[in-house]
Give the backbone structure.
Amino acid sequence: KCYVCGKTAYPLESYSAADNVFHKLCFRCKECNMTLNVGTFKAFEGSVYCSKCVPKPSATAVADDFKVKNALNAPKRKAEGLGAV
């Protein structure tokens, strides 16, 4: 079945991308609705996009990461030579 319209998609008239099957006419960018083909689509998290609309993965630190927790809980060093006056 076509991922977009839900109708039966026969192998000769469909594309398979991002673990889904699409009719050729239903194979469109999720953002701008431009018609795509096998050479122009980009898959991202189960959806298809054109090269201009594909979301860019952002690099973020995971707050629950083991290394981050260890760094936050590490004992703090006291600065040398900055004694109380």
